[in-house]
Amino acid sequence: MNERRAQPRSRALKAARIILPGGYSTFDCMVRNLSEGGAKLVMETTAGVPDEFNLRFEDGSMRPCRACWRNAKELGVSFGTANAA
User: Fold this and answer.
1) Which domains does the chain have, with CATH numbers?
2) What residues does the PilZ domain cover (predicted)?
3) 59 burial type by CB count under 10 A (0-12 exposed, 13-18 middle, 19+ buried)
4) In the chain, fewer beta carbons within 10 Å around the N or the C end?
């Protein structure tokens, strides 16, 4: 299988929170792999998660995200899309 990512991802198991635009709604998720350019997120359901949002890690850092792919419980994101929360 050909690797399409610009940077290789490392396995991770970190708690994070998806912050929707406006900052009033959130979704808890787990970061399962991570690179400088993106991540794979796992959650109960991806229903209701928009294509652009901010991701807040358990250390308090935040990254703007854009969904690249999704299925019922997983979401692949790239970092760098500005989206104020």
Assistant:
1) 10-79 (2.40.10.220)
2) 3-79
3) exposed
4) N
